[in-house]
Amino acid sequence: MKLAGLLLLSLTLAAAERVTFTKSFPGSVPAYCSLQIARTGELEYKEAVTDDNPVRAKLSQAEVDLVFDMAGKLNHFKGTLESGLKVANTGKKTFRYQADDGAVTEAVFNYSIDPNAQQLLEHFEQIAETERAFIDLDRTVHFDKLGVNDSLSQIESLWLNKQLAAPAQFVPLLTRIAEHTAFMHLVRDRAARLKEQFLAQ
User: What are the boundaries of each domain within the chain?
Assistant: First the structure.
């Protein structure tokens, strides 16, 4: 019975409604990224197809509703989004939708003139920028303490511009910085202030 239950849970998760954005652009940094957002709010971010240790976060319900509403306006990517215009290559982008029953639809494009597609792309790019900021802060905290302040500055800028997704994911790192005497007093104060703001949202 226990094995059957686990199998059922696995199948349920595999078929859960989700929207995925991938971008492949060799020569850029990063050359590849993937964002997967489940209806439950669970988010996974990867910078390699084979990455088996993605960054995970939890989006707010409002954020999730916005993504799925925009996907709905695009008919869950059943149509063509590519403009066909002769424009510069800005990377291969894929919007993918998986329904509760496991059915999948997707659209691949370089450039789209559809305003809804442009809006969704911009939103995905903002979320991806947040996750890159998280990766950078995690790296500096562990390997480059002098770079932590610059990482915090980028995070604060995203926050002030209302472009920071899932701020709660930063709280454990901010706590570590604020409470660790290895970091400069100015850095610890900044981390503590950001933590307080993120928890109060």
Answer: 16-200
For the entire predicted model, the pTM comes to 0.90
Give residue for tokens 């240790």.
53
Burial of 77: CB neighbours in 10 Å, binned 0-12, 13-18, 19+: buried
Which residues, other chains included, contact 7 with Cβ-Cβ below 8 Å and sequence gap of 6+? none
Cα–Cα nearest to 46, from 19, 79, 12, 23: 23
- 53-63 residue pLDDT tens: 999 999 999 99
Angstrom CA distances, 158 to 8, 68, 108, stand at 40, 23, 28
Q: Using CB atoms within 10 A of its CB, is residue 29 exposed (0-12), middle (13-18) or buried (19+)? A: exposed
- Give the pLDDT confidence score for residue 13 in this predicted structure: 44
Token duo for residue 31: 């050359």
Give yes or no for a contact between 90 and 26, defined as CB atoms under 8 angstroms apart: no
Q: How far apart are CA 97 and CA 100, in angstroms?
A: 10
Residues 95, 123: Cα–Cα separation, whole Å? 12
| Total residue count of the chain as it appears in this document | 201
